[in-house]
Amino acid sequence: MEDKSIPELISQKIIKMIKDSNLKVDDKLPNEKELMELFKVSRNSLREALKILSSRNIIYIKQGSGTYVAEQTGISEDPLGLLFIKDRKKLVKDILDLRYILEPEIASLAAQNASPAQVEELEEILAKMEKQIKKKNDFLEYDQEFHGLIAKMTQNIIIAKLIPILNETIKVFSQEALTTEYENTLVSHEKLFNAIKDKKSNDAKEIMTYHILFNKERFSKERSDEF
Question: Least enclosed by CB within 10 Å: which of 72, 123, 159, 195?
Fold first, then answer.
């Protein structure tokens, strides 16, 4: 067995330990000394293994505090590498095409399966978003939270794993659009919330479809001379 494979093997053992111990997000792992004794490895090999896990967003390390289980375990903030795509205009067009395919169905499923607690949480996010919009302030964070929670509302574990991708696509669109649409965004999100709250899945699907198509048309008009 080559030495270079040891950190990878240790990282796999740590993943198994996290699963077997049923550790949750923000739960603390044993300290370095305990992990070294548990896996009978050197400090250097262990630290390399922890770097591997950190790069994969399985754990995060707080200096002076310890090692913890990461949120959205195993999924990076930019899993598709959108940051490195040079043709940003084509990227946004393709992002909106993807969202047009996925998000109306996600909204429909969310309306069917959302729990009362999730509906209440969505309303709170919408209220924060409304405050930002009315002040003409940046509302990206709450927009991402809004769409991310809708994905969770489906109660589908695979769709929930798409949240980092959805968040990154929303971020890219926000960065590349030449203007910010405040009024229409607020109205469409309010309508979408009400449809989900009232469990009107067809309405939720139609509203999300309109929301994506509106942004597609807006972006196309802004960049009409570039396509």
Answer: 123
